[in-house]
Design brief:
211 residues, Arc Repressor Mutant, subunit A, Endonuclease, Chain A, 5-stranded mixed sheet, 18% strand, elongated
Length: 211
């Protein structure tokens, strides 16, 4: 479990040593650099460098007493809330800055990708950028995943026509249901189709069981 936590902290931008030091401090604080290095299992020479960087990040607090400096961690909730807010701001700024640079072009090419997540991300992108019309074939899982972006398209007055291959409800657009036995016969139980404005489309099959 600790190995996974280290990987997750590193994904946030901490180094391996910083991650180990922070985890060690969570279990024992306040602590000296020597105690932290021993608990974290890293060279003492690297402990103070990692502590300095963590202090600069606002992940660790330091106090100097008569005999030694003592350190304690900022609570995980406070630290992660800070990272979440920084990430939210960064993504918002990137969204604003990158959108004008993206020139959507009708290239007349076929693009391949693999995986349910990728299929749903591209489907959501097509739906979000539709201007006039959307034609869809959706499974129950697809309806739930895409409901929000479909509702937004409906509010933009995009015409929506959907064939549903399961039992999920969609409260807007022109809806037809594909008979269950025909869904099985035609192999459509895991088929997702999105056609946006009659010129850009996605066809995904087997995407519900592919990670």
């Amino acid at each position: 479990m600790e190995s996974n936590l280290i990987d997750q902290l590193m994904a946030l931008g901490l180094t391996e040593y910083e991650s180990k030091v922070y985890l060690a401090l969570l279990g024992e604080h306040p602590a000296t650099g020597y105690q932290i290095g021993k608990a974290a299992g890293i060279p003492r020479s690297m402990v103070y460098e990692a502590l300095g960087r963590l202090e600069a990040r606002g992940a660790v607090l330091k106090t100097v007493e008569e005999k030694a400096a003592l350190y304690r961690p900022v609570s995980p909730e406070t630290l992660l809330d800070r990272y979440a807010e920084e990430s939210r701001i960064r993504i918002s700024e990137l969204r604003t800055g990158l959108a004008p640079l993206y020139n959507r072009q009708d290239e007349g090419r076929l693009w391949n990708f693999t995986g349910r997540r990728e299929a749903l991300h591209y489907a959501a992108d097509l739906i979000a950028n539709a201007k006039q019309e959307l034609m869809l074939v959706l499974t129950d899982a697809d309806v739930e995943e895409l409901r929000g972006v479909l509702a937004a398209a409906h509010e933009r007055k995009v015409q929506i026509g959907a064939m549903l291959t399961g039992n999920a409800m969609l409260e807007f657009g022109q809806i037809v249901r594909h008979p269950p036995h025909e869904t099985e016969i035609h192999g459509m139980r895991e088929t997702l189709i999105v056609v946006s404005d009659e010129h850009e489309f996605l066809i995904a099959s087997g995407h519900q069981t592919t990670n």
